[in-house]
Structures are given as structure tokens and as C-alpha cells.
Amino acid sequence: MKPFVSLCMIVKDEEKVLQRCLDSVYGIVDEIIIVDTGSTDSTKQIALKYTNKVYDFEWTNSFAEARNFAQQQATGEWILVLDADEYVERANLQAMIDVLKQTDESVEAYDVVIYNFMGVYGERILQHRHTRIYRNCPHLRYDRAIHEQLQRVNGEYVQAKQGILTVYHTGYMHQAVVEKKKHDRNAPLIEREIQAGESVAFDYFNLGNEYLSKGEIEKALESFVKAYQEKKDIRLSWVSYCLVQIILCLKYLKRFEDALRVITDAETLYSETADFPFLRGEIYYLQHRYDDAAKQLEYLLENKSKYPYTIKTFEYVEYDPHMLLGHIYRHKGNLQKAMYHYSSALSFNRKSYEALYHVLQLLARAHHQEEMIQFIEDKQLANDELAISLILRIASVLHLEKVIQWYALKLSDETARRGFQIKVNILQKNYERALQQILKSSVSNLQTYIRTGSLDSYDLLVTAFKTNQLDVVRLLLHLVSEQKEKEFLLFMMNEYKEASEPMFYLLLLERTIQLKEYELFEQFFALSDKFPASVHIQIGHLLHRYEFMDVALQLYRSVENMSAWDAESFVNVIEALAVKNETIEAVQYGLLAISFGHRDFRLYKYVIELMNICGISEERKKVVQQAKRIYPDSEWLKEKEK
């Protein structure tokens, strides 16, 4: 009997993930075709456990040619295309096959939804649609060397229906990208497609994605804009995604006003997608327009039914709005509401480092660590090794020594456990004991400590200075790869005269504050004159963030050239003065900042609110009007205008 569904795959060196993929489909599809393009690991041996239809194909720098070769070997009525780093849920696949058995003959292909797990732990999920199921007909073939598209032999692209199958993809997680060097492989193939000139808009879109993933934002934006300008049809599935990418590039470049203009235009085209209302709220948040942002994000959460679709990620519907609202309410001092939103985000994505970090951070302000452990257990947040590692990493950052002690015992890796034991000794100020444990550790052990998040360079630096054993710093020279960081370590050992990158210095100062080693802070602060004058401003920001407002205020005022102050400096000074009820002086600093050309929304808000307290009504009206010219869409300003 002729097979109904043939799985077609092209693979190369996929021994780490191939079994997971094949286990998810074995016994459900009728035929498995595997085309190997030059594996040097055990990929083919794994494949042969599931099928005898394993073929060699010499790589021609064309994914389309490899996929078409695989199709030629298939005998099923329908073809399912998967990559080795993908998998499906078996019940979902069976349901999709049931749909295929009832499909009208006029339907040639189906799109699937692909969930792309991103980050280190797969904590972010992006989605896209792609045609992965099609009839095994001679007139249907793949085209293009990369980001291949299914088309008819006459050149027409296939109009696929939306299927019910979901495919899970782990190939964009951090480690997989590093190991596969996908950026090095993809960009030249895309450039070749652009030279061919057949689908220029789509090629520029894909090139923009490559630039964006490498952090080359300006190039990415240029490519996305070209893609949008060259599009042939607004209904093409990638066009809406391209608009989202343009907005994200503008966001990264802090071109917020341009981003808002694109969002306004996009909302007229895609009125039922959650991406654009969320991104509007995020831009408001990044402009420090917290009231406007909260109103926008709460509207989105309360009206989810109006936005049944998403373009880039379904996390724009709930997870991301809840996270931003958590940040907003924490900034406002409403910790109860902040906890509600962080907890809601965590319920939506239990793998989220960010959500769990903020939940535990808020719990630590009002609860004993024993209660935090009980919370973690009640919520079943530590139900596997990866989850335990995540909790330990967060507890280490938050300096929760009892939480570390409790969960370190549950780790199977003895070296990792030892690293967290050293961290506990540092937190308990048992520096001599920590030093002895460090000295007994090999370089490989130290690398494990850093990789698992138990220790970092700043823990070792503090330990070295507290025990007066600076030779320990030499161990760090074997652990850091960045030249600037090595120069900083040599500077701290008095073996390098010039101070290097201030970032490392600021992180070391922050660690002394976290560990409450204030004498060590003073010792390191004495080195600040070795750095550019702007470092005093950054130290002021650091002290203000840890609520040493008076000390920060003194430090800001010690920088006599106020043109060197950034907007954050003025905001922090205003907040410190307001706490001291020195309202008039706070208003004066705000007006001075505005006269210097700073456009930070918080400056206008503080001045308007403080003028209201002081009864300065006429000048207040002028400030409101001035702010409205910069932020014409601010609902908060419209309220203050009344």
C-alpha cells in the first residue's frame, strides 16, 4: 500500500538532536527519508535505527536542491518537512494527518506554526509560519538557495492553507547558534540570492534578520526598509514581520519618535495583531512615560480578544505586558501590583529567568529565605535540574545564601555544588575559607563555577582584597578572554598604569555595595580619579540605585561642570531633593535640565508635579505646553492640561 505521509529531512552533524526529532514522528508518518550532506559524527548511524532510506547528497550550497533531492526519494502522497533541531507533539501530528485525509484535492500545501526557542534556556519564544506540508507532485519544487520557498515549476509560489500542526525549533538557542555558526553560513547564501535578483524584497528581509542577530542594527534597519519598499504584495506573510523588525531596530537605536510613527501606520494595516499595541506601550516605557505605558499595556491585557493574532511572538499578548507593568509599578513604589504582574508573567513562562528573578527579588524584601524556599516548592519551580540551576543562578545574584545552600544540595554536578558553597562562604564573609577552596580548585573547576553562575570575577577580586592575597587575581587572567578585562585586572594589581574600561570598575564597586563591604568600596573609590571624569556621574547613578541618595547627591554636586550631567543625573538629584522636601530647589534643577536640552519625560513630569505642590501655576502651564510639543500623544500630559 502506498505511504500516505513521507517525512523528508536534510541533515549534517546532528547527533545531538536527531533522535529527539525522529522519536516525535516515528510510527505516525509512513515513510522517513533522510538526506545526509556530509556528516562526520554519528548522525547516519542514528538515522538508520529509524529507516533504511538514508541517502548521501553532495552539498551544493543550496537548501532547495537538497530538499528537492529528498522529495525525489519519497513515495508518500504528502510530504512533511522537518529539520533535525525541530520536533512535534505526536498527538498534534496525528490530528494534522487526520486533516490531510479529509483535504480537498484543490489544496496543495499547508503552513505550520513554528515556535523558535531563543536565549540560553529557551526562555523566549518567537513564532513564524512556513509551508512544511505539501502534496508529493512533480510540479511542486523548492526554489532559492536559502530560506527556500515551495513553488510550482512554472514559477508561481504555492498558496498554502493554515494547518493545525505546531513545530518546535531549538536551533536558535544561544549554544546551537554558536556551535553551528549559522551567521557565517547564511549571509553569503542570501547575498547570492540578491545578486540573482528574483525575490529581492524577501532576500533583503532575510539579510536584515542576519544583521539583526549579529547586532549590526543600522545595517539591519537599512535591509528591512529596502525589503518593505521592494515588496510586491502587502499580504505576503513576511511583510508584517518586516514591519515589526523595523520598529525593533528603531527601538534599539533609540529613535523612539520614528518607531511610534511606524507603529501608527502599521496599526491601520494590522488592527487585530497584538504586536503593535504592545510595542507602543514598550516605547512609552523606554521614554519613561510610565503612566502612558501602563494605560496602553493594561488596555491590551483587558482587551486580548480584540487582538487574536500575533506576528513575532505570542508573548506580546500577556508575558511582555505583565513584565513591563511589573517594572512600572515597582518604579511607582506599588510593590503589591508589581508582584502581581511579575507572578502573572512567570505563570505564563515558567522558564523565564527575568520573571523569576524579579519575583524572588520582591519576595526577599519582605520574607525570610525559608519562606522563599517554601514559595518555590509550592509553585513547583524547582522540578528538574535546569530549573534548580536557574534558581541557584538567581539566588547567587540576589545573595540569598540559605536558598543557595538548600538547592545546591540538589545538584548532581559536584563541581557546581562546590562553586555555590564558595559563594555562601563569601556571603557569610568567611573569606579565608573561600580563598582556600578557590586555591584548591583547578582552572577547569573555576570555569565551571563561572559557567554555572555561582562565582564571577568580582567575587574573586573581593576575596583577593579581603584576604590581601592579590596573587589570586592571576587566576582570573586565565579565565577572562576579553583584553580590556585583563587590563583592568592588571590595573587592580598595580601592574598596569592606565585604567581600562570603566564598566569593569563600576561592576566591582557594585559588588562591594551588594556584599556590604563599605570600607572596600571607599578603598576602590579612591581609584576613581584614574578614570575619565564621567565615571563620577556613573558612580552617582550606582549609589542612587542602591538608595544611598545623600551620598549620590554629594557626588553629583562635586562635578562642577553641569554640562557633563546626563538626564539621569538631573532626575536622580530631583528625586533626592524631593525626598528631603527641598521642593523649590528640585524644581530649579528640573528647569535647568530642560534648558540644557534634556528631553527626558521624567524631568517634565517631576517639574509639573512639584510646581503643582508649590502652587506655581502659570509657569507650570508653560512647562506642560512645552512637554506636549515633544510628546503630543501623551494622555498624562493631556490630563495635566485641564
TrEMBL record:
Glycosyltransferase 2-like domain location: 6-141
InterPro entries xrefs: Glyco_trans_2-like, Nucleotide-diphossugar_trans, TPR-like_helical_dom_sf, TPR_rpt
Organism, as annotated: Geobacillus zalihae
Protein known as: Glycosyltransferase
A molecular-function term among this protein's GO annotations: transferase activity
Gene3D superfamilies linked to this entry: Spore Coat Polysaccharide Biosynthesis Protein SpsA, Chain A (3.90.550.10), Tetratricopeptide repeat domain (1.25.40.10)
PROSITE patterns: TPR
SUPFAM superfamilies per UniProt: Nucleotide-diphospho-sugar transferases (SSF53448), TPR-like (SSF48452)
Keyword Transferase attributed: yes
